[in-house]
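The following record pairs a protein chain with its ligand, histidyl-adenosine monophosphate.
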Amino acid sequence: MIQKPKGTKDLLPNESYKWQEAENKVKKVLESYNFKEIRVPVFEHTELFQRGVGETTDVVQKEMYTFDDKGGRSITLRPEGTAGVVRAFLENGMGSMPSPIKLWYNMGMYRYENVQKGRLREFHQIGAELIGSSSYLADVEVILLGKSMFDSLNIPNIKLTINSIGCPKCRGEYQKVLKEFIGKNLDEYCDTCKTRFEKNPMRILDCKEKRCKELNVGAPMMIDYLCDECKEHFENVKSMLNSANVNFEIDARIVRGLDYYTKTVFEFIDEKSGLTVLGGGRYDGLVEEFGGQHTPAVGFATGVERLMEMYNENNPESEDKKPDLYILAIGEAENKKSLELTNLLRKDGLIIEKDIFERSFKAQMKYADKIGAKNLVVIGENELNSNTAKIKNMSTGEEKEISLNYNDIKSYFINK
Ligand code: HAM
């Protein structure tokens, strides 16, 4: 039997209803912040991620699903959403629309990762991108949006951590000191870190190798080298979060795994598993990197699989929807009546089940019970002749006589 590729998941009906439930709640929050949905291609030109995410990141160096298509173009399955969204922003002239542009997405992402708990090769992200504002108020808006999403899902055990990783102006000075620190032990770092030393020393702080992590202890932190503008921006973010009564911790070790970040970066951590459920930050240089005008932006993405772990733990009681009515019919004329009623009632949004096997009375009863139908109506020869039937509430056993007219059956459900 052919099995699914490593690092992928089937989402079966016993889980998908919960995903939909959570996704609907999150969508309501996104809409309340006036974010609009965007959908971009699953695959893009490889160059988009090389330039956007950064040549020296793990994502680009180790994790991309890249192939040549039949026309010889290098194509990559999107490992994240921001690069594609910013490309779409530019390609569709969204820069000339009223600013800021507020976009959200819920899309599959692909990374060739070491598969472990919370780390898949196909996973989903719900993300939000606020493009156009350089103000600290935009950072706060986006962080509050993230927090509101967790609140709407009744997820309490989540910790917000923030940091500032400065801008190209202040990074130069910092990189010098960082290189001095790393340079002392460069020989002991892994090969990937060595290749990053000249090009992008900050990436070395993000290395997951045990030895490199040990060597990085005590490294100088970007937050201590911020220029006045970045410092003021960060102070404003912190003060605004405080006045909005949002709890947060400053974690100077957050560097994020993607190169486009500037100034504020943040993560929401699952306090139980320690996993980052949501990550984001400001990326003021990305639109320019893709050939647009200087356009500051800030955003985040949450890993839906990680989010669902937390949602399930905190919302165990929710249940999949059961059929409102099972119409039990035997015989051709009875089935015609059943089909007529089924068609009409389904249009009203009721969940209706009916026989499609030509099963016996007993077998249909058993099935209606197994699938948890809330009500049952039997259409037999007598019922058809008298145009009346008994509708039975399956949990109370209560029966009510009704006519077999659509309007009467509908009002039975409306008046309940
Ligand atoms: P990221 O930190 O790479 O950021 O991913 C965001 C979230 O996606 C993570 O916090 C995690 O919950 C989830 N995630 C990442 N990789 C995996 C994986 N292999 N398996 C399961 N879940 C995963 C970004 O992707 C940025 N584009 C976020 C952003 C948007 N920044 C600004 N705008």
